[in-house]
Amino acid sequence: MVVTDEHSDDRTSELIAFDNTQAGVKGLVDAGITKVPRIFYTPQDAYSKDPEKNQFSIPVIDLDGIGKDPIQRREIVEKIRDASEVWGFFQVVNHGIPQSVLEEMLNGVRRFYEQDTKVKKRWYTRDSSKRVVHNSNFDLFKSASANWRDTTYCSMAPQPPSADELPEACRDILIEYAEQVKKLGRSLFELVSEALGLNPSYLNDIGCSEGLAVLYHYYPACPEPELTLGTGKHSDSDFLTVLLQDHIGGLQVLHNNYWVHIPPVSGALVVNVGELLQLISNDKFKSIAHRVLASHVGPRVSVACFFTTGHSLSSRVYGPIKELLSEDNPARYRETSVKDFSVHYDATGIGGKSALSDFRI
C-alpha cells in the first residue's frame, strides 16, 4: 500500500505497536487474527502471473564431478554462465552438503521460531551491528508495506560469534551449516570466476567469499494471502546467495516480465547473483528481482546465506573488474565499499527500486 499523508500518522502508530510486541508475524497468527492488518497490504504489480503462459523454468545444475572431470567441469561452468546471464538464478544438486544437514537446519529454524516468545525476545533488536538480529522486516519503517515473515540474521564470517551468542534452539546446526556453506561458496566462486573468463581463484582472492550472513526466515500461514507478500520484489545486495527452502514453495523470480516459480527440489539449493556481483561483473551477470508469495499453507521456512561482509569495517573497495573492461565495454558503475553499499541498500528497503541503480555511472 502506498502511504499517503493523511494515513501516515496512523500507519506509523500501527508499525510501532506491531514492533513493540516483539512477537513478529507469528505473534499475530498465534493471537488468532483472521484479517491481515493494513500495514501488510501490498499493491498488485504489473507483471503476469498467468501459469498457462508461464512455460519457463530455472536451470538445475548437477555439480557432481567438478573436481574430477575437466570436460564435465567446463560444461558446468558454461551452464552457470548461461544461467547467470539469462536468469541470475539456478539450482544446484550434488553440492556436497548432506541431506541430513539440510533437514536439520530447517528443523532448527522451526525450533527457534516455535519456542516461547519470551525466549525469542532476547534476540529481538533493530541494531544491525549486532551479531544476531531477530525481528520482523528489517525495513519495517522504510518500506511501503510490511512483509508476512519474521527473520533472524546471524553474521557467521569473517568474525563468527561465539557459540553462546547464538540461539540455543539452532546453535549447533547453525554452526555446522555455515561451515558447509562456506566450503560450497568457495567452490561456487571458483566456477563463477571461470564463467567470467577469469582465473578460478579470482573472486575468492578479492574477498567475495570472505563474509557470510545467515538469515533464517519464518513465513506463517496467512489468512488473506492475496493482500500481502511473504517477501516483496527485491534483488539481493551481496555477491552470491545460497538459499535452502522447504517443500512448501512460493519463491518466484521475475523473468521476461513473468513471475516464474522456483519449485522446491529435494536436496537442491537455490543460488542467485547478488547486486555486488552484477556491479563487479559490469552487468555480465544479472541480479534479478524475486519475491516470496504469502500462502494459506504454512509455516514456510527457508535459510538464505549471503556472501557479503555487510556492515563490517572492511576498507576493501569494489568496482567493475578491470580484466572484463574494454573500449567497447567501459565501466558502468562507480567503486564502493561493501559497507557503503549495504548501508544504502538497507536505507532503500525492499519493494521499490534497486539500490544498484544509484551506483551507475
Features:
14 strands, 9 helices, alpha+beta, disordered N terminus, eight-stranded mixed sheet, 361 residues, 29% helix, single chain
What structural category arises from helix and sheet content? alpha+beta
Give the ordered list of helices and strands. Answer: HHEHEHHEEHHEEEEEEHEEEEH
Name the beta content range: 15-25%
Helix content: 25-40%
Specify the overall morphology: globular
Mean pLDDT: 93
Largest sheet: 8 strands, mixed
Low-pLDDT stretches are 1-6
Describe the structure.
By secondary structure, the chain is an alpha+beta fold. The chain has helices at residues 5-21, 24-30, 70-86, 99-113, 117-120, 171-195, 202-205, 275-280, 338-348; strands spanning 60-62, 89-93, 132-135, 150-157, 212-219, 229-234, 240-245, 251-255, 258-261, 269-273, 290-293, 300-307, 317-318, 336-337. The strands form three sheets. The protein has an eight-stranded mixed sheet. Strand 1 (60-62), helix 3 (70-86) and strand 2 form a beta-alpha-beta unit. Residues 1-6 have low confidence and may be disordered.
In short:
This protein is of the alpha+beta class and about 350 residues long. Helices cover about 30% and strands about 20% of the residues.
Secondary-structure map with pairings?
Elements: H1 5-21, H2 24-30, E1 60-62, H3 70-86, E2 89-93, H4 99-113, H5 117-120, E3 132-135, E4 150-157, H6 171-195, H7 202-205, E5 212-219, E6 229-234, E7 240-245, E8 251-255, E9 258-261, E10 269-273, H8 275-280, E11 290-293, E12 300-307, E13 317-318, E14 336-337, H9 338-348
Parallel strand pairs: 1-2
Antiparallel strand pairs: 2-10, 3-4, 4-5, 5-12, 6-11, 7-10, 7-12, 8-9, 8-11, 13-14
Helix pairs in contact: 3-6, 4-6
